[in-house]
């Protein structure tokens, strides 16, 4: 129904006598087409009321008159007819209708028109060659009208999608704005038909990422134009949301923040962005969506690397007099010893050395750190520093 005349060629001109006969039939034919469409293609009761019948009939008359002009071979452009067909498609898109009803109306219209042509041809004894010309012209013409309607429909859908994306982007920025008034948020959400959720999960995306908008769920808000693109998913991030994200992101990389109350969405996004940065640095594995909830300790320990450097200098200052190799060996031993809660045998197993080696090193460390290893607060700080240093140093092989 929607193929155009391209490649088929327009049928040759119809004899003037036949044109005169067809022109005389136009008013009653238009009325018959409108009546038959109304009978055969019922309106959707859930949608706005249809255009008044008289307006539709005038439109059909214009379209049929344009057909008669076209088959004369004189007129080749019909701007009003083209705009009328495109407007039919645009109206369907704006009202949320599919093209099924319009295409059904076109099918009914061409059937009624062809029955009338066949009847006139029989009464007037028109030659079969003329009938063939009329058939080619009529069906090609309907194809052309349907193509114009589809064009208008797609244009409107594209514009609507862009407008909706812009509204969603503004709403998302309002959600993330500190202290945004609840009534303003509710009003903006209502204007775009978005239900304000109690909880949300934020997702951080790489800069200039490719995202298939059509694959995103309708309730997901997206800001893909931001220098740090991100999404808002209402509620928790479950298996279905994960499938959606995998389909929407051909390059797969993303970081999913924690599910939090709506007012804390900015925190969820901040954690997601930090996790994404650690993925890009090779600290966290890049295996599709990276879930913050699986890396909370890492996110906490590496939340402020400049502060970590300062803390590391102060807590490990006692080792500054050793060589680089000695410092590396001693910090590795101290970290394993702290994780093993002071058990020399378990520490030796982790380091793959003899327990006596561990005891020797720990005696030196006890002397070096003086009373720090006996103080719970100092041991906790040392443990945190060494774990964070190890996490930062253990880059993924592909990122080195």
Largest sheet: 5 strands, mixed
Helix content: 55-70%
What's the overall geometry? rod-shaped
Give the name of the CATH architecture of the largest domain: Orthogonal Bundle
The CATH superfamily of the largest domain turns out to be: Histidine kinase N-terminal domain
Strand content: 5-15%
Amino-to-carboxy terminus distance: 57 Å
**Rg from C-alpha positions?**
36 Å
Looking at CATH, which topology of the largest domain would you report? Globin-like
Domains counted in the coordinates: how many? 3
Number of strands: 5
Backbone structural class: alpha+beta
Domain PucR-like N-terminal: 14-176
Pfam families: HTH_30, PucR-like_N
Domain PucR C-terminal helix-turn-helix: 331-388
InterPro entries: CdaR-like_regulators (IPR051448), PucR-like_N (IPR058663), PucR_C-HTH_dom (IPR025736), PucR_C-HTH_sf (IPR042070)
